[in-house]
Amino acid sequence: MRGQTQMDEASQRRSIRDGFDQIAADYASIRTSSAGREVREFVNWIHPRPGDRVLDAACGPATLARRLIWNVKRVHGVDVSEGMIHQTPRPAGSDAQVLLTVGNVEQLPYASRSFQLVTCAYAFANFPEPLKVLREFTRVIDDNGRIALMDVIAPDDPLGRSRLNLIEGLRSHYYTRILDRSQFTELFHGAGLRLVSSQSHLRHQNWREWLRLSPAAAKPEHASRLRETLLQSQEHDRAGMITRRPNGEIVLCYQTAWFLLRRLRSPVRSVGTEDIGSRVQAQFIEDGRRRIDLSTGSSQSTDTCALSSAAGKNRSRHPGGGK
Question: Angle, to 10 degrees, between the axis of helix 181-190 and the axis of helix 130-140?
């Protein structure tokens, strides 16, 4: 059984890597054209220091890393997708280079206490074991180091969270599970981190961009089903995630959060720490079992493999797009 589980996890990670490779060109194009203001404001909020050595984890095409490099001593970027890495523009001048590596964020290829700052943007929805990732981030920062996260936040209510994750899962071929704020908080504690500061924001993405970043929409018939699913969901969307502008354009609105973290002053007690990952994982499983009927807005228990028939049998870097 354990060998089967390890094989399933390896297969899951390969599917994530392959999915990112598939959308790399579109992803880089969209992020380059649309992320400028958000990235600039996030970097200003972090207040990076000139002497910092920074790691941008799950860096994608290095949109955030390339902004950071003008503020700090050195920036490293790591991503599981070689396709994403290849999309990174190479600015002129060796001093302006981000040091890029293809690697696994669950096993970072860096020595402990190597960095003063670790950043990660719009990636946690695609980490099968987010607690393991956060502990790696904690391992590679020094005693005064910081971790800065920017990510989409799921609604607190189970129905809204399940609806969001169902829609996002239908558009991709790989693992997608968006966390709510309480799940992030538990993970921070489990990784031995304390929250220093946070901000909440809204992020809008039009239908066409969302579709371009949806591997499941590669075929026109699948794209049509996804559009139908969104429109059906809009009728019962109490959170206002899906709206239509006067010109008929479909727009998705996501809640996002910025988190700035440091190590806990006192080490977290070992008793119960491992249970945190288990509790979060249990919530993932429960969300997966809660089928959302997008045409009625009702919730019912079902097998985790059952998906809305309106969207077919298809299961992206997640909504906001990423680095």
Answer: 50
> Within 10 Å of residue 307's Cβ, how many Cβ atoms?
18
Q: Are strands 290-293 and 298-301 parallel, antiparallel or unpaired?
A: antiparallel
Query: Tokens 């139908």 appear where?
Result: 228
Cα–Cα distances in angstroms (integers) from residue 118 to residues 35, 68, 228, in the given order: 19, 11, 39
Q: How many residues are present in the chain?
A: 323
Q: Could you tell me the two tokens for 298?
A: 């009702």
Q: Where are the domains of the chain?
A: 2-311
153 neighbors 202 (Cβ within 8 angstroms) = no
- Give the pLDDT mean for 308-322: 39
The answer to whether 168 and 142 are in contact (CB under 8 A) is: no
Determine how many CB atoms are found less than 10 A away from the CB of residue 123. 25
What is the pTM for the complete model shown?
A: 0.77
Q: Which of 171, 255, 179 is nearest to 209 (CA)?
A: 171
CATH superfamily of 2-311: Vaccinia Virus protein VP39 (3.40.50.150)
User: 88-114 pLDDT, tens per residue?
Assistant: 776 555 455 789 999 999 999 999 999
